[in-house]
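Structure in, sequence out. Go:
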């Protein structure tokens, strides 16, 4: 810890509701209660990130503690961790996550980076809740209901997520709108407002967006508009989907250049009723494949594509997974690999 100053804490959370709520839990534990990660006062910095932006997010700054929340461990994340520990500050790192790639590498993270890893099958916000409760923290009713809402939305096989699933329908809609709003806008300030709103101890406090509209009302409106747009685009793309083995493959490069590709893949999947592989292009020019399936087929299919040398930087959950298409892999190569991989799963 830096002498003469309050400890500096960086919280890096994923853009979605799970990342927002998990970040809010840590903010509450530190700023309101002063118990974690520092006993007493600390200066908190909030930064949203995904696995592909994690390295750049942690490259400029110096902290005593870094808390990583709901970000799957990938090559890009490993580079970011190496950057953190090569710098002059060498912070203490806590890593809370439920993605398969992180679960598989938990021991590696602990041994190579001296990270304290808290992983499991339940959503990250449920893992954080269990950890904080183990050190005596009692969350606010709002945070408890948000954690339960995320558990409903994300599902998963972890018992932490299953044991408390009684949030109100309104709060579930709010949690869903948080994910859609932050993922669509990729606005760090908006993400921070949601974290602050979720962590607030004032029961009726709502962070203003402007024009007298609060963050919850705004988020719900954005969610409705986003749902309508995604459904329209999904309907068109579903008609163009090609059957490749036991997969519906959609090449949406040039047709979808916004955030929300995972939601789009899920919408197409619901229409085709088959495991869906959606290829999109990100702002940095990379091609990302998103697979949506059931019964764990998505992550299994993605891992087979990784083994075949077609995909890198795999992340995601049992039923929705993503990976970056390797340079030099063309559409025919990808379709051939999808065909072989899907047949092997049958």
């Amino acid at each position: 810890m830096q002498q003469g100053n309050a400890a500096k804490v960086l919280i890096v959370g994923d853009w979605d509701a799970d990342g927002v709520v998990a970040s809010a839990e840590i903010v509450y534990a530190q700023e309101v209660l002063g118990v974690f990660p520092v006993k007493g006062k600390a200066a908190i910095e909030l930064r949203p990130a995904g696995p592909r932006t994690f390295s750049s997010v942690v490259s400029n700054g110096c902290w005593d503690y870094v808390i990583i929340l709901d970000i799957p461990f990938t090559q890009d994340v490993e580079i970011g961790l190496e950057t953190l520990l090569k710098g002059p500050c060498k912070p203490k790192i806590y890593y809370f996550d439920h993605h398969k790639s992180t679960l598989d590498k938990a021991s590696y993270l602990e041994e190579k980076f001296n990270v304290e890893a808290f992983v499991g099958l339940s959503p990250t916000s449920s893992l954080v809740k269990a950890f904080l409760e183990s050190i005596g923290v009692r969350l606010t009713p709002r945070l408890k209901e948000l954690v339960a809402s995320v558990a409903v939305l994300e599902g998963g096989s972890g018992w932490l997520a299953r044991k408390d699933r009684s949030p109100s329908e309104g709060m579930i809609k709010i949690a869903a709108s948080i994910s859609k709003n932050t993922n669509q806008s990729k606005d760090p300030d908006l993400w921070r407002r949601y974290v602050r709103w979720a962590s607030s101890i004032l029961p009726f406090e709502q962070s203003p967006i402007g024009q007298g509209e609060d963050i919850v009302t705004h988020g719900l409106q954005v969610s409705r508009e986003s749902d309508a747009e995604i459904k329209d685009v999904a309907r068109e793309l579903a008609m163009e989907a090609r059957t490749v083995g036991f997969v519906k493959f959609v090449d949406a490069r040039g047709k979808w250049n916004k955030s929300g590709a995972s939601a789009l893949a899920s919408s197409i999947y619901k229409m085709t009723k088959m495991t869906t592989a959606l290829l999109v292009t990100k702002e940095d020019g990379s091609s990302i494949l998103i697979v949506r399936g059931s019964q764990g087929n998505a992550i299994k299919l993605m891992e087979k594509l990784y083994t075949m040398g077609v995909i890198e930087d795999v992340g995601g959950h049992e039923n929705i997974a993503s990976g970056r298409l390797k340079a030099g892999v063309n559409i025919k190569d990808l379709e051939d690999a999808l065909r072989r991989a899907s047949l092997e799963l049958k």
